[in-house]
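Section handout 9: paired folding examples.
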Amino acid sequence: MEFEAVIGLEIHVELNCATKLFCDCPNRPGDEPNLNTCPTCLWYPGAVPRLSRDALEKASLLCLGLGAELQPVSAFDQKVYYYPDLPKGFQLSQAHCPLSRGGGIDIMDETGKPKRLRIHHIHMEEDVARLVHEMEGRLPISLVDFNRAGAPLVEIVTEPDFRSPHDAMEFLKALRTQVRYVGSSECSMENGTMRVDANISIRPRGTDQMNTKVEVKNMNSIRHVGDAIAFEIGRQSAAVKAGEAVVLHTRLWDPDKKATFMMRAKFEGPCVPDPKVPVIELTAEYIEAMRSRLPEMPAARAERFIAQHGLTGEEAVFLSSDPEVAVYFEALIAEGVAPRTAMHWLTTQLIPAIRERGQKPGDTPVTPARFAGLLKMMSKDEINANAAREVMAHLFESDESPEAIVAARGFAQVSDSAELDSLIDKVLEDQPDAVAKVRAGQNKALGFLMGQVMQASGGKANPKIVRELLAKKLGTN
């Protein structure tokens, strides 16, 4: 019997608010343990939660950016369970009346066809505290850091539309891009601002039945999500073929062993409306005001890049996948750089150099104006591509203009035919075998001679003129 997977995701995204969801404590989970706490997030008797407007607005923008419909009325519930990381014995979460419903993301499936992956709903909730397990010593202990307790989250719950690890990974990549665009979160799985749980079940291919699912947690990269889903599909398929029942429970992903392991039985506690947090009522005016704050989203920007700047679909999607890269690209064009030159040098040279240095396009010392100055010098044949790469490296280390760097370090391109003539004659004299090969029709030898001339010029020769002069002297033009 052939099986297919039925997969749904639950994605927790930490909002980049200055304060927690229901109090004014700083939203900085990484500070010294238990530094950012108060009677509300520790839930002392008499504490009254106050919903953060900033969190509501950032959550609203996130929902709209994913194509969801904000609900006129939403409310918080007490999601009850008992665990040391939950100071009040329940979590405030919108279980019954979420902030939004619907929405979805379009991806390309494994065959290259478009596929819509739907979102069921998006709700707000508070984060729990962090447990720190000290396993060394005679008596292992667990400590609780409440800095994270009460941090503002949204949970994105999808429909079970996913059928493969590929679907899940492409969805997460697109979701991360769109949330970053609206500015609600950094969505970094490595830093814990995006966390993913996957619910996986299998069924006979061709049927529409829904079978018992298994939830996999503790995945801190998109690759791990794909690997965990692939492993779980194989594990469940083998179990069913062996006559074993799939039981509802939670598992953990071990990236070192590349396997999932049982964590605990799945527990659903009671969930009741919370009397202390007022119902959220969103007016039509508020919803339209939030919608007007949405930036141009990645798909729309990619289409515009194709239409306005003549890029290919792949190029446009790459440039628009990061809002800072897209802004930088258009800033280069505004400075007078040709779109294709801007695209090529940005994607193949500058972005890798920025990432290598741990920077971002928005905070690098190589500003669009400085980089545009360098590219315009190259387009005017004042420097060649090799020199441009050298100058770019100096732009990271100095606040000098590219023109000053070229002048001070002798990077100017040599285009004088008389000067290049003597260099070429010397190379031809020193390389008679290569000359004979060129005249015998072996074009690779011409490239070798080009390289020798460039080397003799210290990389400063104008390649276009060198090629023309070589062709003329060797009679290959």
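Moving on to protein 2 of 2.
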Amino acid sequence: MSRRLLALGTFASALSILSSRLLGFVREVLTAYFFGASAATDAFFLAWKIPNIFRRVLAEGGLEKVFIPFLKEGFDKNFVREVFFWLLLSSLGVSILLSLLSGEIISLISRGGDGNLASTLLGYLAFYLPFAVVSAYFSALLQYRKSFFLAYFSSALFNLTVIGFLLLFAERLGIYALVWGVLGGGLVQVLFSLAVAYRKRVLLPPKAGFGFKVKKFFKNLLPSFGSLGVGQISTLAEAFFATHAGVGVLSGLYYAFRLFQLPVSVIGVSTSRVNLSYLSTAGSRFSKDPRVLEFTLKKYLLRTGEIALYFAIPALLGLVLFSQPLVELVYKRGAFGGGDAERVALYLQLYALGLPAAALYPLAANIFYIKERFYLGFFLSTLWLAVEILLPAVGLFLLHLGGWVIALSYSLGGWITFLTLAGVSRSLNLFLRSLWRLKKFLPLWGLTAFVLLLPPVRDGGILTLLTVAVVGLLYLYLFRKEYISKRR
């Protein structure tokens, strides 16, 4: 597999994810415009976190990392249909439980405030989960077919639907416009996924059954669920600490994390998922010769690590040096004021410190999935959770620091976990080699930092927008020249 094809797959998935994230920004801009960083948005974001936790565990992250390697020996229709049945059944069951126990769940992680509103919202939002699981299931099948762009495009349609609901109903329904937008967006996602799956000939109805292959699949899925579950516990911990840090902190962290997630999703998610798809292919072709397999795995990691760092380093510079103008450009309008912008900019800078680690972490984790060392990967992932609980607990309750310590704990946890994973898998040297191969871009990174620090560029106006666009297009042009046009 040439470096060019790997880069093309990464670019296709990144383009699809980017379209979704940009529409997600429009969604967040409208949310900030209509509702600001208020008690109502705190209630919505708190309720919205709960089904998203189960979405990430049952669907996107946990499913694909185990499901795709299981398809390396061929498209087993019975296996695929049986997995679909159990995923659909479990997601419906979890949704019903979340809705029935919404009050108790919210009371466990919130100290009060708009807890009643949050529990009411959770009762509705819980039923987004089956939509998300079905979409993620078909997304994994499309990745198996190497249709990376279509695999992720349903998320863009989801965001577009929520935007429509906000524009049409925000003034009439208030925060409930977001709730109905989420449910409507989930339905649109499923309809799109079904249509694309039919076109790619992977649309099969669910089938009740629990064959040997399905048993093995769920056995291997358990540590993946545990690993992702640990990550989602950290999400709950963030919500718990944020509600104790003051009104608006949870919303501020959410707005900052959404900005931070744009480069993380485009870089980390696209490179890791394409990497996993090709690593699975390598495993099926060379599994009989461990030495050849090891060489192939390292080759793919070196290439995808280089691509990830090519985008991660300038993104880190941009978010740290350009946080205030960027936050003002995206959010500062309507109910979102200047004080909110300063707080969100600080959170964004602290999140950004962990961007390279967040982008490289899934690549290092893929080594454990391909080698079926699921339980070791699960154990090491708990390090991130430990940092995200211990540091805010000490910072908020003992040292009485602000909500910014929550964002800092995310970055520190990311670096500690990535370095541990890379060290245990003996792949740290590969990532250092990936960084060394980018040394020719040092002058460009310096020029980028210089431009972003110019006072006229930081005014938050049209020049700010043009600078972001020009810098982004420049890096895309160089990526095409260095990684796609060259056949290496």
